Amino acid sequence: MALTTAPDPTRRGTGSVRPPATRRGTGRIRHGEGLAGYVFLSPWLIGLMGITALPMLLSLYLSFTNYDILTPWSEVEWVGLANYERMFTADPSWWHSVRVTLRFALIAVPLKLAAALGVALLLNRAWRGVGLFRGLFYLPSLLGGSVALAIVWVNMFNRDGAFNSFLALFGIEGKPWVNDPDWALETLMVLAIWQFGAPMVIFLAGLKQVPTELYEAASVDGAGRFRQFVSVTLPMLSPVIFFNLVLETINGFQGFTAAFVLSNGTGGPIDSTLMYTLNLYIAGFTDLEMGYASAMAWVFLIAIALITAVFFSTGRFWVHYSDGEDR
Amino acid sequence: MVANTLAPPVAARPQRSRSRSWLRLIILLAIVAVVLYPLIWMIGTSVKSQQEIVSNIGLLPERFTPGNYTDGWSNFDVSFGRFFLNSAMVSLLTVVGNAVSCLLAAYAFARLRFRLRRLWFAIMIGTLLLPAHVLIVPQYILFRTLGLVGGDWPYLPLLIPQFLATEAFFVFLMVQFMRGIPRELDEAARIDGAGAFGIFRHVILPLSRPALVTTAIFSFIWTWNEFFRQLVFLSELSDYTVPVALTLFIDSTSQSAIGPMFAMAVLSLLPVFVFFVAFQRMLVEGINTSGIKG
After folding, report:
1. What residue stretches are annotated with the ABC transmembrane type-1 domain (chain B) (predicted)?
2. Which of A124, B124, B251, B260 could cross-link with B72 by S-S, CB 3.0 to 4.6 Å?
């Protein structure tokens, strides 16, 4: 593109005379730069409008209608709050999917983060093997979200799977865990925890930022290792813990692939793996009740926004930001 | 276990610290075993005969049965080769789309001053947390209204968003990266007469290569593994990508399909594994730059 290399005529001559014209943050908009900004931003802006904002508004509208993909637009009926009413008062499977999702997130996320932090602490000190271990532990995070791995997982916890062979070593007789409504969701939790590598990598980077002087000082003051962990490591690490907690919780609510594979898209056995997103998919694309599915999507969005807001407002009380230390 | 591992440098007591590091190594090796077991079991099962899958609980087959791979490859009316081609095409085009569109947006956010910049940036950060599942129904309706679902080339609904920088994660990653490029370079180029485009072309673009590579690797792997959107938008068997095709095995899981299913599962993870081996360092560090700074 010839255009990109052409010097800007308005700048010529003045550039060398003027002192560093704009300091970051406070500068006035340079002539022509405002336009250039929007030129560079335009793909993103079009995407924001067309792929994000418009669909959100459409979905909000649809959530007050009985739209399904089959009826023509002219026959779509405004049903007011009926979809929301149905969801909260007349749809036990919706409530069930909320419970399944909450249970999944409340158990799997803390365990996954605990595993990530524990292993990060084991790896923390610099020694030769760290890179290798770090890489190996990270591998499941790359593979774990795939259909292929979900298939492996389901078979591993099936009657003839590896898990039961392992139990057999101790004389315990297993069962087809994935077909048992009391255990199917737990196998998915184990799959989530198995992917502890990504938050572990983030914890490791955070641990490196903790200044050793703090440990030395604590040690001089007579603090033992446990006391050092509680009084130095945890507070210094709290921003990273916070980041991982928010991210993993939001991810945890969105678990879809493994539940889909385990239940072949039904949420079974007996709705035990009916994660919220799977329920939404079934409503929208199996039952074609797209108005209802849109209402479900909006409730989901608001719930996630609320949970994030709660995290951020409570974060003030336990997240410790040290100033200047790691800059 | 936790307490004795986060130690500050221990200078004295070499005896205790040595036994401690042995203990740590043993624990770490045990975790490695747990992490790798499912993967090794998957590979072992993919080369077991149907009979052995049920009877032989060991990791390795007694009789090596590569036939699962050829059976799986041609298990459906359309060969898996086609599914792999489809997946590769979607993934590579997604890489191109993300790299180009996110780089342009990131440059605007990181370097240019324009009206409402802060507002747009805040909105971009907001979309980071927006779940894909929330938008899927209306997006499906819109793309279907435009005749793009199941059209002549059914991948457009998967690819159009990727060319419009909707993957905010990568925009954010690149903004963070560009903030590290010294502004003195911009000023120098400006003194030489370069405008916003010239600075982009001659300063930011060449120096952003590491961020572009990270973006490319992550967007390839994520798209290769992605399932939800591909499931929704692809309906013809011959258009299927690998993840969608793999679910066909579940429908037909009579016991006989397990070997071939595992064989195809192994093949489908192979590209990701190759990327992992080749770019391990970069992947791990990519998480960090995007993760905690800022």
Report:
1. 84-279
2. B260
